[in-house]
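REVIEWER CHECKLIST
Item 1: Sequence provided? yes
Item 2: Single chain? yes
Item 3: Sequence as submitted:
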Amino acid sequence: MALDNTEEIKNVAQVLSWAEGALTDTGIPDARRESLFMASALLDCKPLEVFMKRSDEVGVEFILRFEEAVRRRAAREPGQYISGVQGFYGLDFKVGPGVLIPRPETEGLIDLVLKSPLSRGEKPFILDLGTGSGCIAVTLAHVLPGARVVATDISGAALGTAMENAVKHDVTGRVSFIRSDLFDALGHSSAGKEFDIIVSNPPYVTTGEFNALEPEVRVHEPSVALLGGEDGFDFYKRIAKEAPLYLKPGGLMALESGYGQAREIKSLLDSTGSFASTGLVEDLFGVERLIWGVRS
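Item 4: Structure as written out by the authors:
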């Protein structure tokens, strides 16, 4: 792929038109929107502001950078990795290869936590398991000025990005990052139940589902952050068993799940006998997405 007749491309509108056509030809869905978001990243402005810049002239350097971005997207690399950023709960988060891209559905976990009276305590102590980009941990620290957050992840690359996002949003003093496979590196306190809130969006994609995912996810996003075993429940089984050791009486457990998984995960929490109550929360599309439990 190359920009033909580059001497004829003079402004943002013409670059957008070329990019839309090139992405459409390579089978990228919603090529117009994709082109707009890539342009906004390169122009360092909001997508809607690109329209105000449509008549702005562009130079060869910009055209070459835009062409490279289009090449990468045509090869099915996620647009968020190309721009290096993904929005989450009104904040911008750095993302890149090796880090799971935050999804809009996960914002429901933030809402669920904020509805709990525990989040309104003087200094809620929160554990985020499998923090990835840090979107959950950093957002909770950002919206809850008194919160202290511990965030774990098995991936060093993810933790590095999460730390950068904590710096970006000025919460480094209240978020601690630990390299850990779920609870493994936390140890066991003599008192046991430490945290007011434990929140997690663990890997839940089954092996069969993974093989059918679009290449943007299957090829480019880290499989360690996606695969949840043959049935998708490997991490939920561990969390249900171990979380009661780290959660205070009356503490909140909040989990995200994949399509059709929520009721079985709720049953896992119920089977431990450690939760006084459990429940499900639907997402905006009416899908049972979130599971909560209150420690007995």
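Item 5: Key structural point noted by reviewer: The chain has two domains: 6-75, 88-295.
Item 6: Recommendation: ____
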